Amino acid sequence: MTRTFDQVENATYGDLGRATRIYGEAFRLTFEYVYGSHIPGAVAEFGCFEGFSSLLLADLIAEFRAETEFYAQTFPRHFYVYDSFQGFPKSTNSVDSISYEVADSGYWREHEDASPPGTEEMLRHEFGRRLGPGAWTIVPGMFSDSLRATPLTEQVAIANLDCDLYSSSVEVLDHLLGRHLLPDGAVLLMDDYNCNRANPRFGMRRAMRECFARTDGFYEFSEFIRYGWHGRAFFVHRLGDSPNPDA
């Protein structure tokens, strides 16, 4: 089945115009900060559903790539998209299995939010049209498999995590943090930070706390912006490279 980009919907907001305003402003602020601060690295997205945020990010990469006169220094921004295109994995993790979105609402059950047929092909077509060949990579599969088979190896300036589940968020964060792929000042966009009733025992809130703690002080984070009722963006501080971590 062939899909076109004008069929793309957003899972969080039924009003596509509202979704575009909320995500568009948050993503634009992130790009303005990253480019204005001359932070090197790729843009990576983990979880794309129908490709709504993927296309917003691709358009911003193309737009900011062309603004060489405004920004004194620019860096190439390869775009990576990791998604199973099959929805959520089964929640076998003890944290996820008792979370509100799994045990109560059941919304994050296995295969929920699977991408409509043709989504991957549509994104490949649109990325090629908007970014050109060689500037993007789509990696299908569950994170537990795809990050092993096709790991990220370059620095990532902007990471958009729409992973929902605690276990999936941990897999992505441990990969980025454990391999030291986030440069100082990188931005983490955490789409589902306030899901599970914003309870710190579940989801992205718990994943952020535990994954950063495992870096033993190499990384810390602080809040950047909030967007919508659900999302929060964070600055990543890379302290392990500093001769004086307390400076």
TrEMBL record:
GO molecular function list: methyltransferase activity
Keywords: Methyltransferase, Transferase
GO biological process terms on file: methylation
Gene3D superfamilies: Vaccinia Virus protein VP39
Identification of the protein by name: Macrocin-O-methyltransferase (TylF)
